[in-house]
Amino acid sequence: MPLYTLGLNLSKQIGSQFASVVKPGSEMDLVLEGFTDGMRGEISRLDSDEILTKYGPLLNELLQERAGNVVEFQKEEGVKFVDGFLVANPEATKTESGLVYLEVSFGIEMK
User: Given this model, what pLDDT does residue 12 score?
Assistant: First the structure.
């Protein structure tokens, strides 16, 4: 079980970086196949280097595009959150720069 735990730990460390850009199903299966082949030494170093040289730039383009999509999605979600916050808290203030703040008083006097 300790070695299974190592694999699980690796998946948590590495997998979280790709969860938003690698689609579940066939894409994830290909990622796992490449990882497994590499870990088991089932592909020669020469073949591995050739694949990385040939397809590495395409991989980078794909990952940048998908990461950009994630960033845009997060921006849109942020705008929705701020808009909802402002509706729920009419006393909140939004500055020209986009900063939103809400003054809160606890009735405690500071000396």
Answer: 86
